[in-house]
Every structure is written in C-alpha cells, then in structure tokens.
Write a structure and sequence with these properties.
CATH topology of the largest domain: Helix Hairpins
Number of strands: 3
Largest sheet: 3 strands, antiparallel
Number of domains: 2
Strand content: under 5%
Oligomer: single chain
Radius of gyration: 26 Å
CATH architecture of the largest domain: Orthogonal Bundle
Distance between the termini: 90 Å
Number of helices: 5
Strand order of the largest sheet: 1-2-3
Structural class: mainly alpha
Low-confidence stretches: 1-18, 20-35
Length: about 150
C-alpha cells in the first residue's frame, strides 16, 4: 500500500517518506537538535529558564519586531531573516508546553553531558601535566646525579 504523498510537520520535524506504507513514520527531533546548539531562552533574551508563558510571548513579540525582515535595513535583510526564523522556532517550542518540557529535558541532559566532557578533559589535562612534571623531576634528578658523580 505505497503512496506518493509526503506529509510534513515542520514544527515537529516529522515527515512521512515517499512510497512507504502509511503506518511507517520517520521522525527527526530537529527542533531539539538545533535547540541544543542554540539555547532558545538566550535567543529570546530571557534571563531564566523558569519564565512563564506571558514572558515568553512578550520577549518573542519584542524581538520579532526588532528582527522582522520587513522592518530591517536592506543591508541586514539576510541576517534579520535568519534571526527571525530562529526566534520563531524558539517561540514555537517554548510556547507549547509539551515541546517546552521535552526541550528543557534535552537541554538539561545536554548541559550534564557537557559538564561531564569538561570534567573528563580537565582530569585528562591534569594527568598529563602530572606526568610531565614527574618526567621533568626525574630528568632534573638525573642531571644533578651526573654532576655529583
């Protein structure tokens, strides 16, 4: 039962591939992948992740007026359009309670993983420094020992 129809739900990153059974759905959490690269709270210039729906709406409206492609100078149209799209994606995610909850969980997980990576790199760096210091001390002792002999 194949079809040539493609369904797309852009705000959720889901699409039904062409020539596939209707009960097969391929989804990507593209909003969340991108959101983890770009913090939606920072995009909307929000100070905290514990803001309410009204604060999110107010921040979005303020930023949307500022970056709307029709209200920007001609030289900044491309960058304003990109920022406006990012603002819209942020608002779309943070204004929907289910999407926001999922985004917040992914953001927390991402922060935890980032902290773990930083800790690993710090521990690795310290171990390397310790080993270099040990080797340097051994060489210094060998030099002092050869001078005394």
């Amino acid at each position: 039962m194949g079809t040539g129809v493609t369904l797309s739900f852009s705000s959720y990153g889901c699409a039904l591939p062409r020539r596939t059974k209707l009960n097969t759905l391929a989804c990507r959490a593209s909003n969340f992948d991108m959101g983890l690269k770009t913090n939606f709270y920072k995009v909307l210039s929000l100070e905290s992740e514990s803001v309410g729906a009204e604060e999110i709406k107010k921040a979005y409206r303020s930023m949307a007026l500022r970056y709307h492609p029709d209200a920007c100078p001609p030289g900044k149209k491309e960058s304003s359009t990109r920022m406006f799209i990012e603002l819209h994606r942020a608002y779309e995610t943070l204004s929907n309670p289910a999407l926001r909850n999922k985004y917040d969980n992914e953001l927390r997980k991402s922060k935890t993983m980032k902290e773990a990576r930083l800790e690993f790199f710090r521990e690795t760096w310290e171990a390397q420094l310790h080993e270099l210091r040990r080797r340097s001390d051994n060489r210094e002792r060998a030099k002092v020992g050869s001078r005394e002999a």
